[in-house]
Amino acid sequence: MLQPEPAxxxxxxxNAGALLKKTLLQLLVIVIMALxxxxxxxxxxxxxxxxxxxxxxxxxxxxLSFASYRTAFERMHFGTALLNSVVLTAISVxxxxxxxxxxxxxxxxxxxxxxxxxxxxxxxxxxxxxxMVLIPIVQMINSLGxxxxxxxxxxxxxxxxxxxxxxxxxxxxxxxxxxxVEEAAHIDGxxxxxxxxxxxxxxxxxxxxxxxxxxxxxxxxxxxxxxxFISKSSQSPLPLAMLGFMGDQQNPTQWNVLFAACMLCxxxxxxxxxxxxxxxxxxxxxxxxxx
Length: 291
What we know:
mainly alpha; cell membrane; MetI-like_sf
């Protein structure tokens, strides 16, 4: 019995243009990665030198010493500054998550012009940076008798973080949280407050992690608001503690120690991001599908 001949596989024509485009794209990615990594490598290499090593920074890893790290750790009182940064960032991020999630829920569910106006009102906060209105805010805080403590910058952190955070939460609730889940809880007798915290909020974990990362990073690294409201060195977070390494004409900056302090300040963020990165991209992507 004759068997049918196997069909001949057709080869795809060689597309030189597509190959060239792919190669150029890969080269572009490599160049962008190099431009971002080279400064970090220089900082790491310089920080691994003794404070008196003034070799050209481009001579990478010519010494492996933790003397600059020890000096930075002691001079900036790293333990106290780290605790201040953790407390300041944790309280600020917690308030941002609670307020932004609660404000976004009605804006995402209520279909009315008033709800849309509030949504646009929050987004308008992205246009005006907090630094532009800092002077009248300071005058208002002084007139209200609010003391300048290590917790005063929290007011600015929460205010400046709400616009972007509500944008993420509102988009995520509209596109990622089905209303049928809330309707089932409503039929079971759950009130509005209970439906939000027991049904809706647990579904917001991806976008909540995105808010924690995006807002937590800039609150952790903020220098401007902390310098404005914090005056005591014992209350200084890590960015302010690094001021002691900035030199002048009589005492030049010890760049090895300064870069070591920068690495110490960035280390907690790197550790936190390594645990939260799997939620980060998903929360940003889903939260920005619809606005």
